[in-house]
Amino acid sequence: MNRAPIGRQYAAILLFAVAYLGLGWFVHNSYYQLMMTLVLIWATVGVSWNTLSGYSGMISFGHAAFFGLGGYTMTILFVTFGITPWIGIPLGIIVGVIAGVVIGVPTFRLRGHYFALAMLAYPLAMLYVFEWIGYQEVPIPMMREAPLYYAEFSDPRAYMVLALILLVLCMAAALHIERSRFGMSLTAIKQNEPAASAAGINPMRWKMLAMMISAAMGAAAGGLYAMVLLVVTPQTMFGALVSAQALIMALFGGVGVFWGPVIGAAVLVPLAEMLNAQLGHILPGIQGVVYGVAIIVITLVAPEGIYWRLRDFLNARRAAVAPRAGAPISALITETIDVASASPAERKPAEGGEVLLSLDRASRAFGGLKAVDGVNLGIRAGTIHGIIGPNGAGKTTLFNVINGFLRADSGSITLAGTELVGLKPHEICRLGVGRTFQVIRAFPRMSVLENVVVGAFVGTNSDTQAERLAMEALDRVGLADQQAYAIAGGLTTKQLRLMELARALAPCPRLLLLDETLAGLGHDALDDILMILRRINRDGVTIAIIEHTMQAMMKLVDEFSVLDHGKLIASGAPAKVVKDPAVIEAYLGRKWMERAKDTVA
Amino acid sequence: MEALKWHIVDFFQALAAGLLVGGTYGLMCVGLGIIFGVMRVVNFAQGDFMMLGMYVTYYLVTGFGILAFLGPYAGPVAGAALAGPIVFGVGWLSHRYLISRVTGARAVSAEAEGHYAQIIMTLGVALVLSNGGLILFGSVPLSVRTPLSSESWEIADVFLNQARTVAFILAVIAAFGLYLFLTRSSLGKSLRAAADNPIAAAYVGVNVDRCHRLAFALGVGVTAIAGGLIASSQSFQPYIGFDFVIVMYAGVVLGGMGSILGAFWGGLTIGLVQQMSTLILPYQLQNTAIFVVFLLIVFFKPQGMFGRVWERT
After folding, report:
1. For chain B, is the Cβ count within 10 Å smaller at the N or the C terminus?
2. H-assigned helices in B198-284
3. Residues of chain A positioned with their CB less than 8 A from the CB of B102
4. Domains in chain A, please, with CATH?
């Protein structure tokens, strides 16, 4: 993604705020003033939805829960205890964030459809509870003696200013999320969660943080909404239409970008309000129909929202005007590489053949099938260790057990003395174990550089340093020059394999687990990658590689381990292992073995 | 002693009501189960198609009185039965022109983003149906009143509402008929093949797209019949769909995705939960009880009672 610099985005937000304020200042019709305030509030709700669902891909149908809690907390505190909204709204935000955590802890275990459905249930359950308690309709009393203290303004423009301040704060927060490792981690989770966690991203942490921020925004908007309308009802605060509107704003305007909900609200809220005012008395549901039609049309015409459509359109035009826009970018790349090579990251030299990864009777069964069965294995530091075996021998399962995708049923796995069993994939990655996948797991909609940057987050706390590490890793696999800014979805198999390798390499791991990195490659590509692997190994990275191509493996590895039916049947130097009768039998079968023996005899 | 007796009677009263309501919920869930099982699509509009079935029944029986000649007993039942084919048609068209654009073979490959589009599309259809319903039908709650609605059979101090009992019997018959259709007929078998493995089904000559359309239309049609049956014992308005979406998904998930019989049992169980919850909870919270049960199922046993584990690791 070629993004505008962050300063320009800030300027754009500021410009938007000033322009909106300027426009609003000269509107004196109180109906239009209210509408302008509602646009801002719904835009905020949309930004709130976007912060969780747009970036992470976990679709929430329950944002009314936060909106409603924010509104009701403020109102109840006001009506019952006379607490001013200035305190009530922040307290509502706290209640919303707590609800976010309480909802998030169990619900994040769910995937896709289940997550969306479960989220739908929360606000509806709250709706009935609030109805039952007796909060069918709670009006906010007028406080004539101290209107300012109770945030009651005679000039409706004051509410608009408040809503604008809230929206600008939320937009700025969203901009920061988008530009930091936070947003990029969420995007990686959205596109391929297992790959993200193997690259050291803790999905639960980022999702929960997104949920909390999102809940805070939603609750603030709910509190403001109640303040503006001066009354709360369960339907207007917790109703399904509230949740629907939250996602409609974002989807219509643009998913995963903070401008999206703002565009969506600016178009849809006035449209729906106007139609409602004009036709509401004869067509009472016209508002809902407008929203429904809007999202149907948008899913058919521009599934990602107006913003992306516009951007694609503008980019296409800009590209037509200036076809050589690529030049400054490549200059930037070389500059970055220079910086990277000028400060070489500390690389550990080979540790003289000590055992780096050690498996002690590690086992993993699926029901009755023992996919990994009491494997004892030592991978020495600085070596390239080949793992071979017939199809279904348990090789990939072995990797999954090592990197934490699967938990070993019994036995122990240690990396330089640290026990790995029971740790999560991202924790194991943090300890210095990188991996690639048999079926390539890229983040297809991100650029090559971004894919690798995601992997580099583990290695450093600074985002700029992460980008430098990523560039360096790309340089090491030979992708830095041409493809760094290409979108991963358009790469060849070889480039994708190299990109995955770079992603695993970026945080400077001690051990790389490569699962059939050479599969599906042509002869030349294969030689290239072998060369790269040897170079990486020479730089001090221990490599364990699963592979079927024996010729390539014989050229590459220092040691072999052979798995069959989950058991380790041989281990040692390549020349020795390939002559082992047990290995030949596993590969070629007993009959062939016997015939071979006969011929020899 | 007397108090205890009434507690027991209350219990059986709730049990009976739960079973009777649960039967129609079961049929409703079978409708959703077909769609979910075959297409793997979350249809948020399912409740609104049910709402459509209620209004079709209402207009056939009470509003326009086309079925008045069948008398007060057979009329409502015939109305509900006719709502099926009519909503089937609506479902067929919405799949043809809208849903199919974001589902099927194309969307399967799109993975996460495909799901986005499906959920949003059906949500859009739901909004249009429910709010369009408000425009067309008005917001006044209606019900299909029949002489049966206020009559009860009494068995040992337990009252069985006659309208609900008739609805229950018909729902069971309809669900069973559908089960036979899906397991015995060749069309039903190709539907299930398309559900099990769309690609393999396509290779052996099953028209997967047509199967999806049929499944969608059949699913909403069946749910509409269930809606028509409920309409004689429950008042409804155009927004009723959203509440029932959760009821239906709770049943389908409880029964296990992709299992038609399971969906029926799941719906029955949800009916029981809803009615039995009134024994210990205030009346207004019966739907909250369903939501809580739904959340518990999703958390602890997402594969349901009869479901299979679909995902391979």
Report:
1. N
2. 198-203, 208-230, 240-255, 260-280
3. 299-300
4. 8-313 (1.10.3470), 355-600 (3.40.50.300)
